[in-house]
Structure prediction request, 460 residues.
Amino acid sequence: MVPPTRTRTAFESTAACRTQMHLARNGVVSPEMQRVAEREQLPPELIRAEVARGRMIIPANVHHAALDPMAIGLKARVKINANIGNSPTTSSLDEEVAKLRLAEHWGADTVMDLSTGKRIDETRQAILDAAAVPIGTVPIYQAMEGLRHAEELTIELLLETIERQARQGVDYMTIHAGVRLEHLPLCRHRVTGIVSRGGGLLARWMVEHRQENPLYEHFDEILEICRAHDVSLSLGDGLRPGCIADASDAAQFAELATLGDLTLRAWERDVQVMVEGPGHVPLDQLEMNVRRQQEVCHEAPFYTLGPLVTDIAPGYDHITSAIGAAIVGWHGTSMLCYVTPKEHLGLPNAEDVKQGLIAYRIAAHAADLARGSKRAAAWDRELSQARFSFDWRKQFALSLDPETAQAMHDETLGDDYFKSAEFCSMCGPKFCPMHNFKDIDWDAIGEVVAQRKAARTALA
Prediction:
């Protein structure tokens, strides 16, 4: 249930500040913080303290009335974001709302609307009206609507778009303010250059105009909009590596240093921040990347796309990335942006969304286990107990995808009697190790072990 006290009044002036960070720093446990405490099973005062120091964010735009508040941070469960959105060539408003509902059903904690097609405002409003989860956007995508080339962008258009989306109720926005003009030469010899859509647009603008990134130059004006509507900033990694060969290079880390500076500037204005991360990173560099971000960006929540740990599996990148996601989650990443099987290939459909979210729920849960979550461990233990007792119904109910688990179990057991039997089709009744384990006479075994021990002692 969404707490009835969640909705806050809109601001009369853009100079007002009612962000969660502002409230937390003034000792206030807001209704949003209280709700997060309930969902995370943590003390409300701990939530307030984490938000106050910037190590946790609660994306909760004052205009998003349907929102059920959640948190992203080191003390919270590892979260998952799902991307949806129409494109100039495919999808409709109804399809995007359906994708939102599907993403929520399969466990997305936030959803980003990355629409670049027609009816963007209308599509976003329909999503916000229906969404209980925080909604994120990348405003530069909409700012490009109606323009032929990136060079035509103006800071006035960018700020107007950010303001309009903030008033609509967007909870967090990706702003690529860390891509600096001086960073661009560092990308020159990359294998895949710049793979971020926002980063690529801004790079083209800077080269054409021979000027600094307008989002960097006008960052203070962006902060004023965020203060007025409680929009959390997701500082975009416009120079993230797009392949393993480009991972952890000078361009990536030059931008990261700028994002660390921008984090402090946002915190000075009580604006909540998380920092986006790569991309494509091999296994041996994952821990280093997380630790470097946490140090450079002052423990602001880390939000990563994957990372993909190899480039050779188009069509299966929900797997290549979930491997990396589990590891970076273990080492301190707070939110994982899901990757679907269609990554690098096309716009995902409903089945792609499901497959991406299941893969990432596994990764996030594995990370929670590695981080010592008692709640995650209890879930695993309860399912294992159901498995050992051959309580198939309970085992299915506790699984991430009950329908698929039951269908796989029942597929090779034709008779209804066998579908509830104390074995599965892999081992059958004769070879089932758990069934055989239960038949052991443990008292008799204890006696035999004691006798053998006594005999060895006597011989000694």
About this structure: The chain has a mean pLDDT of 92.
